[in-house]
Write a structure and sequence with these properties.
mainly alpha
Length: 361
C-alpha cells in the first residue's frame, strides 16, 4: 500500500469511524440512498468511492450522486412550496433524465453538473423575480421574458432550459426566448508556435511524463482535456509495431516519439501514488478511488509546462481540417460534423464539396 500512514490517519478520523461503525452495525444502510443521508459529504463521497471501487456498492456516476445531494439541499432553501415543487419536477423529470442518459454513455464531467446547478439556481431566481411582478409561471407574458433577459443576459441564460421545459409541458404560455449566443473559440496559437511547443514537450525529459502525453493529445489531435481524462487503458492499443488511441473511428496511430511516450507512461501508471491507480482503468487516474483525473487539474498541469490547452486545441483542429475533409477529421477525432465544418469555414478550407461516406467502393 502506498502512503500507509495517511491511510491510517484517515481511518482514525471520527467521521470515518462513525460511518464505518454505522455500516457494520446496520444503523446506516449499505446503499447509495443510505449514504446519501450522511454527513460530512466529502468524507461520505470518498468512502462511497472506495466501496464502489471494491464492488461492495454498485457503480453509479459520482457526479450524479453529488448533484442529487446538492439538489436536496438547494430545494430545502426554497420557501415558496409551489416554487419548490415545480423545481423538483423540473429536476426530476428533465435534468435527472438527461444526466442519467449522459452517464450511461460515459462519466459525467464536473462542468456538466455545474451547468445543471446553474439551471436550477436561475430557474428559482426567475420564479422569485416573476412573483415580485405579481405573476405566477402560468401568467408569464412576453414582456416578462424580455425584461428578465435584458437585465443580465449571460447570468440568466441558464434559466432558458427551465423556461423551455415549462413551455413544452404547458406550464406557461408559448413565448419567444432570446436566441442562443454563439461563442467564438479562443484565438488559436500560430502554427509555428504550436509546433515549437510540441517539439519542446516531446524532447524535454525533465517535464512530467503525464503532462507530456496529455499535451501531445491536445497539440496533435485537438483533444479537449474533458475528453482526455475519460480515456481508458482499453482505448490504447499496442501491437509492438504501432500504438493507436481510440478517439473516434477509426483509432488514430501515434507517431514517434509520441508512441514511445505513451508506452513509457502506461508503464509508469503502476507507480502513481494514488489510491485508485492500481485498479483503475483510467488512462489518467485521479486521486479519488475509481475516478479519472479532474480536467481542471490536468489544465493546471498543462499550463505549468507552457501548454495553453484551449488555444493549442483550437490551433490543432484548424490545421487538421485544412489537411483532410472535415467529416473524416470529425469521425477520427470524435468531433461533431457541424463543428468540424464550421472550423473549415473559419480556417478558409476548401473541403466544402466533399461528400462524406465510404469512398473505397
Amino acid at each position: 500500500m502506498d502512503r500507509p500512514k495517511s491511510r491510517l490517519i484517515w481511518l482514525r478520523n471520527p467521521n470515518v469511524v462513525r460511518l464505518l461503525r454505522g455500516l457494520a452495525t446496520g444503523s446506516i444502510p449499505l446503499s447509495h440512498d443510505g449514504l446519501q443521508q450522511e454527513t460530512p459529504w466529502r468524507t461520505v463521497t470518498h468512502l462511497r468511492d472506495l466501496l464502489m471501487d471494491s464492488a461492495v456498492l454498485p457503480r453509479v456516476d459520482p457526479q450524479l450522486l453529488l448533484y442529487q445531494r446538492w439538489l436536496t439541499e438547494r430545494l430545502a432553501t426554497i420557501e415558496d412550496p409551489g416554487h419548490r415543487q415545480l423545481l423538483r419536477h423540473f429536476a426530476t423529470w428533465h435534468q435527472m433524465r438527461r444526466l442519467r442518459t449522459k452517464a450511461e454513455k460515459g462519466p459525467l464531467g464536473r462542468s456538466q453538473t455545474n451547468h445543471t446547478k446553474q439551471e436550477v439556481t436561475q430557474a428559482g431566481a426567475f420564479l422569485g423575480w416573476l412573483a415580485d411582478r405579481g405573476r405566477v409561471i402560468g401568467q408569464c407574458q412576453q414582456a416578462d421574458i424580455d425584461a428578465w433577459h435584458t437585465e443580465s443576459v449571460a447570468t440568466r441564460r441558464p434559466s432558458q432550459s427551465f423556461l423551455r421545459w415549462c413551455i413544452k409541458t404547458g406550464r406557461m404560455p408559448r413565448l419567444t426566448l432570446p436566441p442562443a449566443v454563439i461563442t467564438q473559440d479562443p484565438e488559436p496559437l500560430h502554427q509555428h508556435r504550436r509546433l515549437a511547443i510540441l517539439r519542446r514537450v516531446l524532447n524535454d525529459d525533465s517535464l512530467p511524463l503525464r503532462a507530456r502525453v496529455a499535451a501531445a493529445l491536445v497539440l496533435l489531435y485537438a483533444q479537449p482535456v474533458s475528453r482526455i481524462v475519460r480515456l481508458t487503458i482499453d482505448d490504447i492499443t499496442d501491437d509492438e509495431t504501432t500504438v493507436t488511441v481510440r478517439l473516434g473511428d477509426p483509432p488514430s496511430p501515434l507517431p514517434e516519439p509520441v508512441a514511445d511516450l505513451m508506452r513509457a507512461y502506461i508503464q509508469s501508471r503502476q507507480h502513481l501514488p494514488y489510491a485508485s491507480s492500481r485498479s483503475s482503468q483510467w488512462l489518467f487516474p485521479g486521486r479519488q478511488p475509481g475516478q479519472p483525473m479532474n480536467p481542471v487539474s490536468l489544465q493546471v498541469h498543462l499550463r505549468k509546462i507552457g501548454v495553453p490547452p484551449q488555444r493549442g486545441r483550437t490551433s490543432a483542429i484548424r490545421q487538421l481540417v485544412l489537411q483532410a475533409p472535415a467529416p473524416v477529421i470529425a469521425r477520427a477525432l470524435g468531433y461533431h460534423d457541424k463543428t468540424a465544418t464550421r472550423l473549415v469555414t473559419e480556417a478558409g478550407g476548401t473541403w466544402s464539396r466533399y461528400a462524406p461516406g465510404d469512398h473505397t467502393r
